[in-house]
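Homework help thread (please don't just give me the answer)

Our assignment gives two proteins as sequence + structure token strings and asks us to describe the second one. The first is just a warm-up. Here they are:
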Amino acid sequence: MTENQQTDEQFINQPTVQRISKEALQKLLSGKVMRDSTCFVKFYSNTCPMCHELRQHYVEAAYEVQNNLRETGRNDVHFFAFNMADYMEAESIIGFEGTPTIVMIRSNTRKPKITVLPDPEAPHPKTWYHASDIKSFFKKEI
């Protein structure tokens, strides 16, 4: 069993990270989501090996955050994954270059707040971001 399959087994009943559609992403970016929410989106490409390797770190960090927030009664933080093949323009609209990229989108106003996780100073050779980069970003933005 591969690491990704093990992760799938571990989180099979936990909708921790959901794939987001082009329409849903456009709604988030346009400010049409008026409910207070913090959304993290991992942008990936099917042809990007680092994107696939990063999956486990992203899912595990999201799972950890959701469990901690559930204990406090918060349900306003969501985790998504977006395939760039569905909407290539997202890269220029949000202002990032290349995948994998992790973005926070906070909705509750007509102009959502968007923060891109900065490129690491010393990228991981297989995943680009380190697990600690992702966890620190989640903690800072929640």
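The one we have to describe:
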Amino acid sequence: MAAYGDIKRQKYKGLDNEEELVENLNDKLAAIFAIYHQPNAQSIEDFGKYIDSLFSDEHSPITLSTCHRAKGLENERIFIVKPEDIVGVVGCNRFNSYLDGTAPKEVYMDELDLIIEENLESEESDLLPVRPDSPTPHYDKLQELLNNHKLPEEDKKSIRQALERYEKWIQSMNEIDSEGDEKVRSLVKSLNEYKSFVELEVIWDSEANFLYRQRGQLKLDNSIIEEFLPRLVDPAIIPALEGRIYVTGPRTTFSGAYFTSSLASPSKGAGLQIRKKDQDFTVSRAAYLQSSFDPTFPPDDTVAHKIHLAFVAAECKTNLDKTMFQGVLATAHDLKVAFPGSRYYLLCEWLDMTPISTRATDIDEVVILRGKRLQSNVRAKFARSNARREARDWYLNFLVSNPVREDRVLRFVNHMRILFNTTTPAEDEVLSMGYF
């Protein structure tokens, strides 16, 4: 195993994500060693059988899962491994009580679901127009990074400075009092100023290599865009939103429904199951579903679900390659099948693939906010801080030459304007035009 590890580490040398690959390798090797010594296996065959038994669907009492996959499985009890690694993701005092010792670290599923529901979903109240406080995915990522034990000490100061600069960025956007396209331009200008600071002074100027090499995993880049986009969903920019009920920002939205009941073994509420999908950006509204075999919907034979219907959904990518594009195709298809009235967009900063027509897909449009991604051989040159230091002027010029472009953002805004202005045409108008 030691020899195997040395061979793999040698293979990873010089790659953009060398540190990440080595860390994942070490974790896998440590897991294999731990499992191997636990049962005192006498042979490779015994070892394989023991691993199979650990994760057998038929016999194992334990399900090993990521947090995302565990959501909605309704297990009686969940144990969170290294819960400190997800501080800031939920940002809830009751959730954090499980981490600071004031509550047990085993979390019952119904309590965990309730915490997530209360903190990530904005309720509609008295059918008034809803525009909740802007979600803060980028702020959450900064806080999460600051609490990350892998963050080098020399980078902690710059992350704290980024948090200070973040507050100024939010304040600058809050103070914009213009309307229409002019407000969009002001918002984009403020966005570019803050993005340039993060990309140049926080990531590029770092004397360590952690932030540069792990920027994709840390999501510092695209979380800025995720936090910016809800600012565009504003009656001052899209007047048709005035008086309407909606929520905006990252959200888990409805992507399908199915029934698991049978005639021989009827399930409660006809076994209605809901499929959901996390979206980076939405303009959505809550809806409520009930299902029962009884038309009076008695509590003992009724299931109820709260869902969010995404009228607009967008996937945000820092770099768009062909593999990512294929994945988004499936997400767009599921959304359109479940909710045909939705619109689905793919927003990327940098294009890293040969363009493909979206005409035959369920993606309404791909919007490239900045330009073409630097080639991999160019990016690899800057894996070390000394190389980045020498090329700082070049990189600054590259950022200045490739900002988030106003016209691309305005294009996305105009798509939403057209969608939300759409009304059912009057019969006389249709007959006069001759089409609808």
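TA reply:
I won't write it for you, but here's a hint about the kind of observation we're looking for: The CA atoms of residues 55 and 64 lie 8 Å apart.
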